[in-house]
């Protein structure tokens, strides 16, 4: 047969276009796009009838935590990452995502200096269970170790295709000072990799958290009050200045406030290579979600603890949606960071039991969402007209692929691209439904979106020409996914814009 699989009667949506079109797939790749196929052409091929629904490039979720060492690493807060590569990628597949980029993290343990060893160790975890979908790694760097930066970063880029790193401005066990940030940013810049920044002012948070605790304000709700939007506003402003000194491209992860988004937009207006990500929690949750229970012994509402916290009110959601529409935000990721709460009386299990009950400072930060990411944005953004279908694809697939060196293998529907697709239900016939956690495929015992109404859900997820999710059933297997060696960012540093001084500095520093 000419094709292995054909998708007919769909509206094929890319970041550029939305047109009725048929797709012919051969050898795992997009082969042919055509207004129609003759019966001769499709003979012998598997046929999927999209029935007029949107057909898009498979989701690329560039912010996922799986199998991550959180005890000594990410937060020093305890808590166990509930999803491994099998369960996390399974959940992603059921939600229309075909690529995840997860985090491999250096820690401050002496034995844990080598970035190469860190990536090797995380890849071994992925290989131990397999992944339903394709995956890659960002490296979290928590030291400004000159030897490691000089000797190991080039190897990570060349041999592993790890072309992005994440740096923290908060969390005691992670955060870098300004000079340390500059050291690592310069190393990133030399290696032409993208620097991801977790931008919250750690000192402000620590100071506020102590004040709150001294007043006995320790319930989970106060997590939000310990990190008001100005915390993110200050840190984004400072990171933009630091990166701007040496023209280092940065991507702010999980931006949760319009104040921070305004800093990003201002930098972009100046022509600086500043990018930003936001996540479903910042468009769907508010402070109120942390206030639901408010009991010092019940961790129910810790189900919504993430950092930055959800914004104060729903008007913030509108502003952040505007940022998705107008290009302030480059990508939309889940920040899936899974913890379980299957405790008998509202107390977390495992090593959290020994911690001070109810105090927000000891609750692991992070919420699950790799499976709900696409459908939440469909429901709240695409179906409401806040963003176009093309913008939806740009944010969920094309731009993360471009930013992290996967394009046009991923994030595109063009001949030669991987045949990774998400096919939605025809909107006319789909019955909106209320989500419950038992519909999801992660290894987490809750969803922050329990009871929320969804207006669509992926009907088919296709990975390199193979159907891995169809009509509510998983069809894929844990070893369907492959490791992705990534290239340089497609965006680069762009024109020098108004910051020609930064280009000069970047040049003489090399
Ligand atoms: O609260 C969050 N975002 N947890 C995940 C870890 C991180 O900082 O991205
Ligand atoms: Zn973060
Ligand atoms: Zn994260
Ligand atoms: Zn409870």
Description:
There is one protein chain. By secondary structure, the chain is an alpha/beta fold. It has helices at about 40, 70-75, 85-95, 115-130, 145-160, 180-190, 200-215, 220-225, 230-245, 260-270, 280-285, 285-290, 315-325, 375-380, 390-405, 500-510, and strands spanning about 5-15, 20-25, 30-35, 45-50, 55, 60-65, 95-105, 135-140, 165-170, 195-200, 250, 275-280, 330, 420-425, 435, 455, 460-465, 465-470, 475. Strands 1, 2, 3, 4, 5, 14, 17, 18 and 19 form a 9-stranded mixed β-sheet that branches. Helix 10 links the parallel strand 11 (about 250) and strand 12. Mean pLDDT is about 90; it is low at about 345-355. The structure holds N-(aminocarbonyl)-beta-alanine (URP) and zinc ion (3 copies).
Average pLDDT, all residues: 92
Give the class from helix and strand content and strand pairing: alpha/beta
CA(first)-CA(last) distance: 54 Å
| Number of helical segments with 4 or more residues | 16
The low-confidence runs, each spanning 5 or more residues with pLDDT under 50, are 344-356
The shape, in one word, is: globular
Q: Roughly what fraction of the amino acids lie in strands?
A: 15-25%
The biggest beta sheet reads: 9 strands, mixed
List cofactors, ions and other ligands: N-(aminocarbonyl)-beta-alanine, zinc ion
Fraction of residues in H or I helices: 25-40%
